[in-house]
Each structure stands twice: as structure tokens, then as C-alpha cells.
Amino acid sequence: MLSERSVPVIRQTLPMVGASLDKIAGLFYARLFAAHPGLLRDLFNRGNQASGEQRTALAGSIVAYAGMLLERPDARTDAMPARIAHKHASLGVTPEQYKVVHTHLFAAIAEVLGDAVTPEVAAAWDEVYWSMADTLIAAEANLGREKGGWQELTIAERVQETPDVISLTLRDPHGTFVPGQFVSVRVQLPDGARQIRQYSLSRGPARPGWRITVKRVHGTRRPDGEVSNWLHAHARPGDTLAVSAPYGTLTLPDGDGPLLLVSAGIGTTPLLSMLDHLAATRSPRRVTVVHADRAPSAHAHRAELLRLVEELPHAMLHLRYDRPVDLDAVEVSPDVTALLCGPLPFLRTVRAGLLGRGVAADAVHYELFTPDHWLSA
Question: Where is the Globin domain (predicted)?
Fold first, then answer.
């Protein structure tokens, strides 16, 4: 909870800070990487920095957190940062790095907002920042103790799923995972940078080894994916990869209630893991699967998806190629749990449609493969 003296200050200045997010974030990252170039080389996603996506996500998350502290002061504040904590833990973010971020972020705020940042305003936003940071630090420490660190895993198999998608099966991993989770993969690029990316585990935990599915990022409005293109060009059976423990909050829920799995493109991968687990355990749950893609030839693991749905006694599949998903044609039970993965505009549309049909907001869960700026948009 915010202190009584900070509540009116944050309420008054929240619109001003929100309106200046882009300038604050841009200046913050320029300062941060000038002082600590190793963070850009070995921790931050250089592609997301080049596209500007990460800027919106970071600044927006702090503003969204401040809004939550104002509007729901008695709510638990660890629910919203859970997804961020899992991503940070998989990257190996340290408590000391939160201090570094604080230094350069607040310097950027002061420079952009100028005289509006009085000592009272600075103290109030400092309170917001450290409330969020302390929540994340504690969560990430717990996750690290539970899961352990990096491991070197050997590639046992490589499969070309589509022209732009490969799957890599990694041999003899330590630990297990919950269907839907991801791992981080760290590679050393030709310029010496050690870049890290997250990839969903695309088969269930009962299978031998861990399988990741990698879509090559190129030819879009974003920079080419450094790690995805490196893996496509170089990763072969017998090679080793540095892989984190499994993390992630979009996981298969317990119980026997109905499920709605909705994905687009490479977003099929975490949901494929859930389906594989459901089929392996002969689950009697009612499962509706909706997937959108450009074409059957671009649909990674298409045959596998068809087989898994066929193996489930109470499953239905809706495929949409080169056209929008229309949930009006899909039977949706009010007590369903919906699990979504895909691009942000797709997720917004699907979520709004589900809420409009009476599905509870807390029963709709999602995962993004880009920086999560849902809350800031």
C-alpha cells in the first residue's frame, strides 16, 4: 500500500507521467546502456530495443502498477508482476540491477519532467518503484531457489517443421515443468554478445527430453531475430545449448473444468504442450482448441495438433487460415478457463470477445512472445 502522503501525489501526477512515457523510457535506456553497455550486450533483447517495444513495456508496467496501488489499495500486489518475475528469473536478473535501473530511470524522469518533479513527487514515485521492485525481487529469489540455474543440454534432434520453424529436442534435462512453461536459451553471437531468448516447451513433461520450437524472425517491421536466426543457421544434433530452468505463468490449470485454448501462429507451442499432457493422461476434460495461421503450410506442428485433438475424447478443433478468428462460431461455456497465446492485437480481440460472452476476467489467461505492454497501451 502507498503511504497516505503519497496517494494524492501519485493520483495528481499519474496522467503527466503516463503522457511522457515514451520520452522517459527512451532517455532512460540511452542513459542505462551508455553507463552499462554490458546489459545491452548480454541481458536485454537487442531486437526489442531497436524496435522500441521494450521501452513501452517497462515504463508502462510501472505506471500500471501505480494505478493499481491507487484503485485497489487492498489488493495483493504480487499478482500483476508474476509474469514479469518469471521472465526476469529465467534471464538471471539480480537485485543489484534494480538499483541500477532506479538510478537511470529517475534521472530520466527528472530530466523529462523538469521542475514538476518536486521532492514530494520524487519521493512518491520512489515509493511506487520500490514497492514493485521489492515484490519482484522477492518473487524472483523464490523462483531461483526452487528451480536452480543454467544447464548445458545437448541437441538430440532437429526437425524442420515449416520453412521458418524448427524444433529442437534437448537431451537429459534436470528438473520437470508444468505444461505451458518456457525456458531461456543463451547463445554467443559472432560479435561476442551473449543474447538470451525464451522459447516455450512444446511437448508435455512425460516425453523424454525437452522440445523447443523456434520461429525464425525476419522480413517484418521488426529487426531480424538474432537468436532465432543463429539457431536456424547453426544448431545441429550433438551441439549443446545453455538452457535455464522452466518458468512461466500460462500453465495448464488443475481440475476437470472445461478449457478453451486459443492461439495464433507460433503461439500454438505452449498450448501444444498442454494438449500433449492431456492426451498422455487420458484426460476426460472438455477441450476446445482454436488456432489461426496464415496457411496450413505455415502452421507449425499441424499434424501433431490434429492427432492430439483426435486422441482426446471430448475435444473440438477450429482452424482458421488467412482469416480472423470468429469466436461466435465456437461454443463457449461460462465456466470455461481460457488460455491464449499470440500477438497482442489478436489477444485483445479474443479477450474482449470472451468477456462479452460472459467469461469471467480472472478465467482468461495469456502469454505474449513480445514485451508485455498490454497494460500500458
Answer: 1-141
User: Of 29, 65, 140, 161, which is the active-site residue?
Assistant: 140
> For 298-320, what is the mean pLDDT?
97
* Position 73 pLDDT exceeds 90: no
CA distance 103 to 266: 37
DSSP letter at 214 equals E
Q: What is the CA radius of gyration of the chain?
A: 21
Residue 294 CB coordination number (10 Å): 12
Q: Is the dihedral of CA 262, 377, 220, 237 positive or negative?
A: negative
C-alpha pair distances (Å), 122 with each of 7, 128, 208 = 13, 10, 53
Domains in the chain and their CATH numbers?
6-147 (1.10.490.10), 151-243 (2.40.30.10), 259-367 (3.40.50.80)
**What mean pLDDT do residues 171-197 have?**
95
* Catalytic residue from among 65, 98, 199, 366: 98
366 is catalytic: no
Please say if 129 is a catalytic residue.
Answer: no
